[in-house]
Structure formats: structure tokens, C-alpha cells
Design brief:
This protein is globular. It contains eight helices and five strands, in the order E-H-E-H-H-E-H-H-E-H-H-E-H. Helix 3 runs parallel beside helix 5 and helix 4 runs antiparallel to helix 5. The chain binds adenosine-5'-diphosphate and the ligand Nc1ncnc2c1ncn2[C@H]1C[C@H](O)[C@@H](COP(=O)(O)O)O1. Adenosine-5'-diphosphate binds next to helix 1 and helix 6. This is Deoxynucleoside kinase. Keywords: Kinase, Transferase. InterPro entries: DCK/DGK, Deoxyribonucleoside_kinase, DNK_dom, P-loop_NTPase. It holds the Pfam family dNK.
């Protein structure tokens, strides 16, 4: 079983991924953020570093998908924090549309993505955490990563628009949309139970 958690920056993916992995006793796959050699430079100068960062994320996410395949073959359950689909359909697409990634770099990137994607298995369940801008901003603030301090509201807004468009056309498998605006699964265990019940119902037809 493979559940992938998707959603905008600060939506609560990592927090939920850890809690679900603990609950189901499955492996958790998180994003490579702390050792990412481009992320800080990217936030300082997006046009300069957009392509480098996208290639880095694409490669690290591809390795993750291959490792997830191995674990699934070994009969293990997996929770994944963010997918390779989001790199291309959300982040790279947004950078290109916003004029922050040059046409030739975007086409080069897409060609690489298309070569890789045929080797990627979609998750059994895609869990989309839908959050409005105030929730995203307050949670990004709460996390307090230096380089995310200057993220513009417009950047988050455009990412949210890309998410809504991508999710509305998602056909790779089961999809569960959870509005997290009024959920606090950090401090309220019952909010976590609501999500777990929804997952069980969508995946296994329980409840
Ligand atoms: N539903 C929630 N309610 C309250 N706080 C949350 C919730 N989800 C996440 N947080 C807090 O918001 C911050 C960002 O969450 P995080 O899981 O890192 O988001 P993401 O991985 O989607 O970027 C963390 O400090 C986390 O404790
Ligand atoms: N593909 C990506 N392009 C640009 N930025 C990305 C990409 N994937 C992740 N990020 C950024 C967004 C955040 O600053 C960090 C971690 O993501 P988070 O949603 O907070 O887990 O990396």
C-alpha cells in the first residue's frame, strides 16, 4: 500500500506523513529539504536557479519512487510526502508560466520528466491537503525556515491554482481531498482520527 500526501508549501504534509506512518506502522518518505543544495539560492534568485532546483528535485523524487517500488514488492506500506507529479505539474509549470523559467529550460525539463514518468507507479491513494492562503502563511511562519521568510503571497496563490487544476484532472488512481483549514492534527487527536477514518473508508471501504 502506498499513500502519497500532496499539497502546497506549509499545508501540513510532513506532519501528517509522520503521524500516518506511526499509525499504520509504515515507512515514511520525506522530502530532501535540509540537504538540498539549491533551495536557499532558488528563493534568493528564482530565474537563476529554477532549472537547477527542478532537476535536483526530479532526480531525488525519482530515486524515491524506485525505492518505494522495492518496499512495496517486499510487502511494506509506504507514506510519501509530496510526489514527482507536483514537481512538474505544479512547481515547474508555475515557474514557466510566471516567466521565471526559460522556454528551452522548461522543454528540456519536461522531456526528462516524460522519460522518467513511464517508470513511476502512481500511489494507491493520493491525499490532497487543501489549504487557503492564511493557513499556509501561518504554518510557514510557524515552521520558521529562514529562506522561506520571503515567499510572496502571489507565489503561494499561483501554486494553489495549479494544485486545483491538477487535482481536478487527476486520473491515476484513488483520490481523497481533505480541507485542512479548520483541522489541527498537531494538537487535536480527534482531527487526526477524522483523516484516518476517511483514508480507511476510501482505501478499504471501512466505516
Ligand atoms: N493541521 C495543522 N494544524 C496546526 N498546525 C499544523 C497543521 N499541519 C501542520 N502544522 C504545523 O505547520 C507547520 C508546517 O507543517 P509541515 O508539515 O512542515 O507542512 P508541509 O510539509 O506541507 O510544508 C509545522 O510547524 C506543523 O507543526
Ligand atoms: N519542485 C519544487 N520546486 C520548487 N520548490 C519546491 C519544489 N518541491 C519542493 N519545493 C520547496 C517548497 C518548500 O520551500 C520546500 C519544502 O516543501 P514543503 O511543501 O514545505 O514540504 O521545498
Amino acid at each position: 500500500m502506498h499513500i502519497a500526501i500532496v499539497g502546497n508549501i506549509g499545508a501540513g504534509k510532513t506532519t501528517l506523513a509522520n503521524k500516518l506512518a506511526h499509525h499504520f506502522n509504515w515507512e515514511v518518505f520525506l522530502e530532501d529539504v535540509d540537504h538540498n543544495p539549491y533551495l536557499k539560492d532558488f528563493y534568493d534568485d528564482m530565474p537563476r536557479w529554477a532549472f537547477h532546483l527542478q532537476v535536483y528535485f526530479l532526480n531525488s523524487r525519482f530515486h524515491q519512487t524506485q525505492r518505494i517500488k522495492e518496499l512495496q514488492l517486499a510487502g511494506k506500506g509506504v507514506i510519501q510526502d509530496r510526489t514527482i507529479y507536483e514537481d512538474a505539474h505544479i512547481f515547474a509549470a508555475n515557474l514557466h508560466q510566471s516567466g521565471l523559467m526559460a522556454e528551452r529550460d522548461y522543454q528540456n525539463y519536461l522531456s526528462l520528466f516524460n522519460s522518467m514518468i513511464s517508470m513511476v507507479n502512481p500511489p494507491d491513494l493520493l491525499l490532497y491537503l487543501r489549504a487557503d492562503l492564511p493557513k499556509l502563511v501561518s504554518q510557514i511562519d510557524k515552521r520558521n525556515r529562514d529562506y522561506e521568510n520571503n515567499i510572496k503571497i502571489d507565489y503561494l496563490k499561483h501554486l494553489n491554482e495549479h494544485y486545483e487544476e491538477w487535482i481536478s484532472g487527476y486520473k491515476h488512481g484513488k483520490l481523497l481531498i481533505v480541507d485542512v483549514n479548520n483541522l489541527d492534527y498537531v494538537n487535536q487527536p480527534e482531527d487526526l482520527s477524522v483523516i484516518i477514518d476517511k483514508i480507511n473508508s476510501t482505501l478499504f471501504g471501512l466505516f
